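Lab notebook: predicted structure, single chain.

Context: the supervisor wants predicted structures on file for every construct in the current expression panel, including those that have not yet been purified. This is the next one on the list. No modifications to the sequence; it matches the entry in the shared construct table.
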Amino acid sequence: MQPYDAQPTRILSAGDEPLLAALLETMDAALCAFDADGVVTHWNAEAVRVLGWTARDAVGRRGLAGWAVRSADADEIMGRLLGVMGGGGRQVHEFALVTRDGGRILVRAQTAAVHAPDGAAIGVYCAFSEVHAQIGLERSIALSDALFQDATWGVVLIDADLRPAVVNGCAARALASGRDSLLGRPLGELLDHGVAELEAALHHVLSEGAPTAPLDLWFTLRGDPEAVRHCWHSGFVRLGTPLGEEPVPLGVGWLFSDVTGARLADQEASRLRFRTNQLRRAANVAADCGGPMDAATAYVDYALAGFADHALLDLVGPAGKLVRAAGTPGGPGPCLPVSSAGIPVGYAEGHPALQALDRTGSVRTSCLPSHRTAPLRWPDGTVSALCSVLRSRARTLGVITFLRGSDRPSFDRADAAYCEDVAARVGAVLDTG
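Prediction complete. Output recorded below exactly as produced.
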């Protein structure tokens, strides 16, 4: 590769005046320029908008005294503006200017010297804007810096291709990766469960705008061996460019906070309320049942709702073997008494129901893919089971088993506690027979 041959910068010539005028008129900042004697040489459209003085009013005047600046302040302000010719670099000033209608506004101005090709200072240009507008810009920049440095919320800027473009520290920690390593990667490489819901939300924001309220999104991180679920309370804003004639979405700002603990606590409280209500309703129904088995199956039916797909009730027979007393049919349905004629179920040694009987407690288990359900004597499709012993007056009466299919999570400790509560009530009503 040949080295770049830098060419000398060309100074604008007289023929470049239309280009210079176009540049000045389309600037977002108000701009005026002075020659070495302080005569106004340029005055752009933004300066007209801010102060009301037209270019015809301004160009050719010496200084700002008596029109754009109060006479008492003119010498001090012009001295500051023209003083930049004697120093290097850019200077920033704040002072009050007078509008054409007689009002006064505080502006912040940046000044720099204009140099001739030989390096001599031949004038000054001054770009200025209203202080409150400048402060608003600075606040926006400061807010952006704070969000991407110290914010306790995760902030991710996602481009129109749904890839992270900027990630703050909190978001990087939540995604268990470094800030730079997240950039430009598809969301599917970062998130597992929940990525489809996130992408749907992002597409909606890009096409329709931000949702009316934040929403909770549940995720698991890609590559997490434990597949821990995280709930992130998420808000979205659409980012658009102000430079186009029509708004063009640049991407989406995604702000989120980890509320997993609070949401899990809410879910557990709601689940506990529901189960308590189910047991209360079951007790009311059992009180009106004509026999112990009817009362027992009433408890099982109410416990099944939202808890499991199947239930089996095995009682200890005369020979100490478990005998099927009631159960749900092959498909979902109520728990019904079974006429077994006292024939034992025939559980193999080590069966979870027999383990619960031996331990006088509860046993949770999952069916491995290699495990056939026939030896376990459970319905097809069972993937997890929870067995709890039936006890009353220091006697073991049998075992209750709840079964779940693949569309439900495995039983947890809270489920085991609920099963034991149900077992205690079932054992109590069976002991009355």
